[in-house]
Design brief:
128 residues; 6 helices; globular
Length: 128
């Protein structure tokens, strides 16, 4: 399924050059259940990915929350400093599959900027 987006995403991302591409991670339990991270599956065939974020398991998945519950979600991300440091001062694109409220991307951006304040961050999602 992810192959159907490869060509179009490749063309799109060529117009947005970046020094690194950071996918929104899947928590460990979801990864074990699915066997893959959908964001990596979609974008990993198009650009090299820097897995510098980790996600803690949330008691309730974002998909099961309404808008106000999503917006109230606490910070679920933690930066992997060893993998983030090489991106200092660089332009990155934060990648996600679906944009609903933007809360996930805002949390990821805040986490990355706290770890590496000199990052310049743009975001790209497959769908809204």
């Amino acid at each position: 399924m992810s192959n159907c987006f490869t060509s179009v995403l490749g063309q799109f991302l060529k117009k947005m050059p970046a020094d690194g591409y950071v996918p929104i991670p899947t928590d460990t339990k979801s990864y074990q259940r699915r066997g893959f991270n959908p964001v990596c599956g979609i974008f990993g065939k198009v650009v090299p990915l820097y897995d510098c974020l980790n996600k803690r398991e949330l008691p309730v998945k974002q998909a099961h929350k309404n808008r106000s519950e999503r917006l109230a979600t606490a910070q679920p991300f933690q930066a992997n400093m060893d993998k983030c440091r090489p991106l200092a001062g660089k332009q990155i694109i934060l990648l996600d599959d679906v944009y609903t409220t933007g809360r996930t991307l805002f949390h990821a951006r805040d986490c990355l900027l706290k770890a590496v304040p000199s990052l310049k961050i743009t975001t790209v999602t497959l769908a809204r």
